[in-house]
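Quarterly update from the structural biology core.
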Amino acid sequence: MHALAEYIWIDGTHPTAHVRSKTRVIPLEPGSDLAEGRPTVDSFPEWQFDGSSTGQAAGGDSDRYLRAVCVVPDPVRGKGNWLVLCEVFDPTEAPSATNTRAKLRAAMASGGGDHDCWVAFEQEYTFFKGSRPLGFPDERRFPAAQGPYYCGVGSDEVYGRPVVEAHLAACLAAGLAICGINAEVMPGQWEFQCGGPGVDPLTAADHLWLARWLLYRVGEDFGISATLDPKPVPGDWNGAGMHTNFSTAAMRAPGGMAAITHMCDKLGLRHDEHLRRYGHGNEARLTGHHETCSYREFRYGVADRTSSIRIPRLVAKVGYGYLEDRRPAANADPYLVNEALLRTLCDLW
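Predicted structure, tokenized:
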């Protein structure tokens, strides 16, 4: 008897990291946690990979370590198999320079973990069939202008729903913190939400990376690829973001609006530092058009989708809750986004 473990890690591709994976066949020891179907990260042995092929090492000293940090059931291969998210370590046993999860861990240990932070990501992405966005007829034509596609229904307004439904089912089967899906403003563009009440910054980011891996893997079965490009189509088309909903215990308590506006003011003082961590090519998206605020300015407001930070109307109505950082691009690293938010929250810059 054996289990199949898909070891998944974040590579060193620059300027936007990719997700990689490879499979390990693990013999099942009778009575072990893995054999009993209740593994922990310690159930999966340390492994290695060729870092020179992933932008994480030189060829003359290429081995890098993979260490399990988050394990969920594998919905692709089925019962008894596992997706194993890993951190990357150097031969010195130190976290790799590309190990952004370690940076988030450090921020949480330096005070960020004391505020009972909850995080939810709104991950937008765009389907491509070959070199064209799904729903774009051909190189000589464009679909009808934006308007009917957002949360649309019908084969003339929605493209790729079978992939989206299969991805949602896979994420739920894996036990990820997926809390919703919807069609987005541009044809072939979708969003899933990951995280939510009670989900800490580290878990939310872990689950988002696993959900991204599943999105790409499910797309293979349909011959459709998903891109996280912040501006997949030039011109009068919406870009793709990863809006980040963030709260602390103080924000969620009665009267928490004061804590929310205080955090917004602090975010404004660190606008440039955040943008450097919020995804490559984001300037093409944050133009001040298509429901964005220009990257050159910082604003926050209630129910304002043209601002950098939106305070939802219901939050303003009850006087407590959370804020939505609308600046992160779809291709942003969620570990770096959460690290930046915690650094600003705790004055760790």
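DSSP finds eight helices and 14 strands in the chain.
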